[in-house]
Amino acid sequence: MDQFHIDYSLKNIPAPSRFQYKKQLVSKVASFATRLRWKAFFILNPATRSQKKTFGFKTLTKTPIVPELKPFEDELFNIVTSIKYRPFKNQFQDKLREDKEKVLRTNEVIVKADKSTNLYKVSVDQYNKQVKDNITKDYRKCSRSDIEEVTREAADIARKYDLEDRIDIPTEEEAFITVKDHKESFPGKVECRLINPAKNNIGVISKEILDRINSSIRSATHSNQWQNTNAAIKWFNSITAKNKKTFFKFDIVSFYPSIKKQLLTDALEWARSFTKISEEEINTIMHCRKTFLFFKNECWVKKTDPSFDVSMGSLDSAEVCKLVGLFLLSQLEQIILQSNLGLYRDDGLAVVELPGPEIEKLRKKVINIFSKHNLKITTQVNIKVTDFLDVLFDLQNGLHRPYKKATSNPIYIHKDSNHPAHVKKELPLMIARRISDLSSNHEVFTTEVAVYNNALMTAGYNSNLQYTEKPTCTVRKRTRKKNVVWFNPPWNDEVSTNIA
Question: Which of 196, 298, 449, 497 places its Cα 20 to 30 Å from the Cα of 271?
Fold first, then answer.
């Protein structure tokens, strides 16, 4: 497995050909015209507006014709035929095109790393073997009749929500892998993460149900289930007498696939004490656990419980993990003070003020709580400094600073990428704000900023990042949702016409 070297961000956008750009523009114009027609139709005919909940699924009903919009639409579509271009060429775009051609010409498979921007080249046979080996560890083959049965069940659920005319049948995208090159055993032993992109669209409904449940639980329990790094930093800053405490850190091993039916059932039953959950909603959530994995025209299901799987990549799997996380937090809070404990997905962090023997007893109790639910964890205890997400916490001096792995340097989109000008203009300011938020003070920022300035310079920017003071008042202003239909045409540096 050889590394495929790309020394710039994979988020860079190559300039499209004029034909490709016109196709994109036609698609965006048609989408805008369709949304505008529906908006105008309901304004002119308010009695026809349906009040049913659609969960964001689009209607297949033919777009109504609104005569009043005809002159505007004619002018809108005339934009496509009157586009003017200017000479546009730079070395970076040439390099993007060359690398794209190199990728298209290769006979090998290019695989992404699991937690970095690294890419690796493997032969087709080796890739297929790696995928098959990862599948056969936990999955067995199944018949098409099993898929058809679950599809019929999905159709019944769609009818109950009166959405059978809007929801597509489950998709059958092929599974793929990412390389865990952050493991100590790499490259001697190559471990992979199996991703299942096949989706049951009922998961959109399940996701919204679970979002409501999780939000209600967090409001009622005040448990520290962090949604981002800033929430973890706020928790760290609230800790008193930091120098007297040590970190208790744990990581749930293979969290998604380790969640069993009984654990989710127990979590849902516990959640019912905080919010109303109907049997229909529970059936919807459980239906979305009936997932299938596809590879080389074969379908697979879990060996242990074919009708239950929390697969990485499904539409509601993250929300399932959050619900289970809240359930586990409620049990951990019985042995660790709630204000001293928090969880982000499968990563947990706590502070304790205990002697060594007592910390070991606590570690065994924590492991036992997870073991009761057939979950395994790794732990790090009695430490003063630890990384968590993209920040480094230090209890000795009470400071926090940006964190990155030694082998992972920041890479930003190039100034000659085909991004809108305002995006590239704002990028240095956004990075400065982010590094400032991750830094306790100006001194920490100054110590850490050099690597990010160098990354920006490599991407073609001349800006020097400046420390941004954190706002003292965090009260958000009340904002009303604007009733606007937005037109967002595709960007192209080569276009001289002012489209929008």
Answer: 196
| Residues paired with 355 in a beta bridge | none
pLDDT for position 47? 81
For residue 92 the two structure tokens come to 């970076």
pLDDT at 473: 61
pLDDT of residue 48: 79
pLDDT at 312: 81
The per-residue pLDDT for 476 is: 65
Q: What is the structure's pLDDT at 474?
A: 59
Residues of the chain with pLDDT under 50: none
Instruction: List Cα–Cα distances, 206 to 101, 211, 216, 225, 275, in angstroms.
Output: 41, 9, 15, 20, 16
Q: Where are the alpha helices (DSSP H) in 293-409?
A: 317-332, 356-371
Q: Are 368 and 379 in contact (CB under 8 A)?
A: no
pLDDT at position 265: 97
**Contact (Cβ atoms closer than 8 angstroms) between residue 424 and residue 413:** yes
Q: How far, CA to CA in Å, does 13 sit from each of 110, 189, 446?
A: 19, 34, 31
Question: What backbone torsions phi and psi does residue 110 show, to the nearest 5 degrees?
Answer: -100, 120
At 373, the amino acid letter reads H
Contacts of 499 (CB under 8 A, 6+ apart): 25, 79, 83, 489
Which pLDDT score is estimated for 296?
93
DSSP 357-388: HHHHHHHHHHHHHHHTTT--EEEEEEESEEEE
What are the structure tokens assigned to 2, written together?
A: 């050889």
Q: Is the dihedral of CA 446, 447, 450, 452 positive or negative?
A: negative
Backbone angles phi, psi at 179, to 5 degrees: -95, 130
**Whole-angstrom distance, CA of residue 491 vs CA of residue 494:** 9
Q: In Å, what is the CA distance from 169 to each residue of 56, 195, 200, 415?
A: 16, 20, 7, 42
Alpha carbon distance, N-terminus to C-terminus of the chain: 46
